[in-house]
Design brief:
This protein has 293 residues and is α/β, with parallel strands linked by helices. It is built from 9 helices and 11 strands. The protein has a single domain, classed as Alpha-Beta Barrel (TIM Barrel), CATH 3.20.20. The model has no long low-confidence stretch (mean pLDDT 95).
Length: 293
C-alpha cells in the first residue's frame, strides 16, 4: 500500500503570514517521510469538514505549482477538480504545465463537484448533476484529445458543453501517454462507468460497500475492454497518529482493513500536519509498516 498526503484545508496557526512556510515544511517533510503523492482539494471556500465556511482555503493549482517547486519525487494532483469550474482546454493546459515543470509528476484528479454554496458564492459554474456528469466525461475526452500522441490531436473538438476549434497543446506533457487520470467518486450509475472507460485510477470513499463497488468496476472494465488491474484503486481517509504517536496501532489496523477491501493507495489528511511531527511519525512507523499490505 502507498500513502498520499492530502491537504484538505490550510486553517493553521500563524495565519496567512506563515502559510507559505508551513506548506513548504509540510510537503518537504512528507516527501522525506516516504509519502508517494501529495494532493490538494479543489475548493475555494472552507466547509463544515475543514473548520467552517470562512476557514482558510487556498486555490488548488497555484498551490500544486508551489508544492512542485518544493519537492522532487511525489506525484501531484487535486482530489478532485470540479469539472464545471474549469474549461477543459485550460484544464488540460494547466495540468500539462504542472507536469512539465515538475518533471512528469502530475495527475489529473477530476470529479463532478459537490459544493454548490462556494460556486454560487464566487459565481462559478455549477449546473445540474446531469450536466456536471456530462461535463466530466466531455472534459476527460477533451484532455485526452489534447494529450494524444506527440503533438496532440488538433482537429476541432465539439461536444454539448465544449467547443475547441484547435486543441493545440505545446509543450506536450512529459508523462506518456498522458498524465494519469483519476476520477473520484463511488457512484455506481454514473461515476464508476466513467472510471471503467477512461480512468487510470479511481478514488472511492471507504465503506463496507467498497468491495461490491470494486466488483462492479471489474465487470464494467470487462464490458469496456479495459484491464481492471491497470486501474489504481485509491480511497480518501484521515491519518491520526496522535500527538505522541499513541494512535499508530489503531491507524495501522484501519489501513490494513482498507487493504483487505482492495485499496492500493490511501490519500489521507494528517491530523496536526502543521506541527510536522505527525508526518515524521508516519514516515517512521506507518509508511514502512503498510508497504507490504
Amino acid at each position: 500500500m502507498k500513502l498520499g498526503l492530502h491537504i484538505a484545508a490550510t486553517n493553521w496557526r500563524g495565519g496567512p503570514e506563515r502559510l507559505g512556510k508551513t506548506v513548504a515544511h509540510a510537503v518537504e517533510a512528507a516527501e522525506a517521510a516516504g509519502f508517494d503523492a501529495i494532493s490538494v482539494t479543489d475548493h475555494v471556500w472552507g466547509s463544515s469538514y475543514t473548520g467552517g465556511v470562512e476557514a482558510s482555503q487556498v486555490e488548488a493549482y497555484t498551490t500544486l505549482g508551489f508544492i512542485a517547486a518544493r519537492t522532487q519525487r511525489v506525484r501531484l494532483l487535486t482530489l478532485a477538480t470540479a469539472a464545471s469550474y474549469r474549461h477543459a482546454g485550460l484544464l488540460a493546459k494547466t495540468v500539462t504545465t504542472l507536469d512539465v515543470l515538475s518533471g512528469g509528476r502530475a495527475m489529473l484528479g477530476i470529479g463532478a463537484g459537490d459544493y454548490s454554496d462556494e460556486a454560487q458564492g464566487l459565481g462559478l459554474p455549477f449546473p445540474s448533476a446531469t450536466e456536471r456528469y456530462e461535463q466530466l466525461e466531455e472534459t476527460v475526452q477533451a484532455c485526452l484529445r489534447m494529450w494524444h500522441g506527440q503533438s496532440g490531436d488538433q482537429r476541432p473538438f465539439r461536444s454539448k458543453h465544449i467547443n475547441m476549434a484547435r486543441p493545440l497543446n505545446a509543450p506536450q506533457s512529459l508523462s506518456r501517454p498522458h498524465p494519469p487520470i483519476l476520477i473520484a467518486g463511488g457512484g455506481e450509475r454514473r461515476t464508476l462507468p466513467l472510471v471503467a472507460r477512461y480512468a487510470d485510477a479511481c478514488n472511492i470513499p471507504p465503506s463496507p460497500e467498497l468491495p461490491q463497488k470494486l466488483e462492479l468496476l471489474k465487470r464494467l472494465c470487462d464490458d469496456a475492454g479495459r484491464d481492471y488491474n491497470a486501474i489504481e484503486k485509491t480511497a480518501p481517509f484521515a491519518f491520526d497518529v496522535g500527538a505522541d504517536g499513541s494512535k499508530v496501532p489503531e491507524l495501522l489496523g484501519r489501513l490494513r482493513w482498507l487493504g483487505s477491501l482492495g485499496v492500493q493507495t490511501v490519500f489521507g489528511w494528517v491530523v496536526g500536519v502543521d506541527d510536522i511531527r505527525p508526518i515524521e511519525v508516519m514516515g517512521h512507523e506507518v509508511i514502512p509498516a503498510v508497504a507490504e499490505v
